[in-house]
Amino acid sequence: QCKISADSISFRNIAPNDFEAEISLINNILKIRTNKTGIYQGFLEGQANADLNDSENIKFEIKVKATNIEVNEFLSRFTKIDNHLFGKFNLDATFTSQGSTEEQILKSLSGSGTGVLAEGKLVNFDFFNRLATFLKLEDYQEEPIKTLKNSFKIINQRVYFEDFEAFSKTGDWKVTGSIGLDESLDYLVGIKFSQEITKKIETNDYLKNLAQFFKDEQGRVNVLIKVSGTSKNPQFILDFNNNPLGQVS
Q: Which helix (H) or strand (E) holds 244?
């Protein structure tokens, strides 16, 4: 068992700074614990355990708590969503996996956790531009986001949303369903449009009937949209089988 510290290190294109950790290796079980390491303009603390008994199939368990990290830098490293979502992000999560390559690790990945984004923005994200086109609304060149919070689970190569809520200029959003690590989409989006967007809908020939039938007591239009396809080619269907007012509150 030992302690190490370094001004900066680099591992798999991750470069934390002011790194301090306690490391132990007992019976080929490697344990690394760190407290408040600087990363992605914020801080990271947690523990990683690796079972090294089978070098061709290393088993991992990672518990991580990230505070005030820049979400774009995090997403750019671990997903294909880069230079679109910005803001300070908090993450508390546990992940398990196994393998010796990044492909094997992603294929066997499971986990759960919660994430919160505050005072962020979404910039020129093609998915939302396609959604705006579907709804006959203006493109989302830049969408301010007041807050976004989500609990998630990763099972069988899919990320499942639980308690996903976001509050933005366009309105209040709720999401249930999942996204595959292969970028396939299968979820419902409930949108409670802001008063500003509701007024635009009321004058839109395509959507004005929604304003008549799907207004709530606050005079805001609520819709429920089923999303399928892939991240590169999403498909949208207005869901009239469920009551949007029961989905977005």
A: helix 244-247
